[in-house]
Amino acid sequence: MAATEMTSTRLEELLGDETESLLNHVCSTVDKANLHLPGPDFVDRVMVDTDRSTNVLRNLQWMLHSGRLAGTGYYSILPVDQGIEHSGAASFAPNPIYFDPENLVELAVEGGCNAFASTIGVMGAVSRKWAHKFPFIVKLNHNQLLTYPNQFDQTMFATAQRAHELGAAGVGATIYFGSEESNRQIVEVARAFEEAHRLGMFTVLWCYLRNPAFKKDGVDYHVSADLTGQANHIGTTIEADIIKQKLPENNGGYLAMGKDFGKTSQLVYDKLTTDNPIDLCRWQVVNCYLGRAPLINSGGASSGQTDVAEAVRTAVINKRAGGSGLISGRKAFQRPMDEGIGLLHAIQDVYLSDEVTVA
């Protein structure tokens, strides 16, 4: 296990005015004693009792013992599927060397990540050199924006069988919960995950909301704790081994949508969450079967100068909530490689720090 390079002074500098509310918050909603928390023994303590095969457990263990966070139970994953999701130009024009998959793998390895997640094309281009040395996660479906007018749907680009053949340790997929296409996507992804497990690979679900109705009265409830929590719950139900979710920024999505949409409980808002972002993220963890499916939050788009501070803030919230790590792409690869490596290390330093504890 690597040593943290993040000093207390640097951490407080990055968190700024939120230092007190984030580092000293005590969660009084769902007690951490009820959670299945990350740790070096997570596979033996939590996963070994599941229906996952020995090969799935071995691949999960391999990922947990790779990179700078090896032996901690936490994940730092580099995802690069944005060339399809956002276009190659929008993704790689800031740093064109990353049109070459070899450079992306180098960023993941030198950046100390546990694994690299990308498209079947990217993985296939370098699989014989890297797939036996470093955990690959093949993203099976994508939303592409070359259809006119633009549509927002997830299309299967690859199969679990193909991912297995090139040596992947795991597969990933996205479901747009709340969209008109979500029922079809749930069936497609559930079947793909079942096949992946049969072939010995673990599964990661990009567990996103997508419906214009979720933006109401100037508030974007795509990132509400209650709606994203339910998406996590469905994702865990189709046996995603790891849930990837956006960090919650608000709450009350169900209430805003009105009585004709879904079902919730007032206890969620009165007792089980507060306005503190750690408690909102804790609700996401709770919906992942109280942490049986590890929650990794996404790093979000690159904002430039504030990227490191934003990434460290997200990592602190995720770790203190009982989450299991961060999956950050654009903030890392839309800058020179040495700076991207430094950003990934800053994220990992939060999980290596003894000063950042579960609230």
UniProtKB/TrEMBL annotation:
Q: Where does the source fall among the domains of life?
A: Bacteria
Give the EC class as a word.
lyase
Could you tell me which SUPFAM superfamilies the record lists for this protein?
A: Aldolase
| Pfam families, alphabetized | DeoC
CDD domains associated with the record? DhnA
Molecular function per GO: fructose-bisphosphate aldolase activity
Q: What is its EC number?
A: 4.1.2.13
> Sorted alphabetically, which keywords does the UniProt record give?
Lyase, Schiff base
The similarity annotation says: Belongs to the DeoC/FbaB aldolase family. FbaB subfamily.
Q: What is this protein called?
A: fructose-bisphosphate aldolase
Organism listed in the record = Capillimicrobium parvum
Its lineage opens with: Bacteria, Bacillati, Actinomycetota, Thermoleophilia, Solirubrobacterales
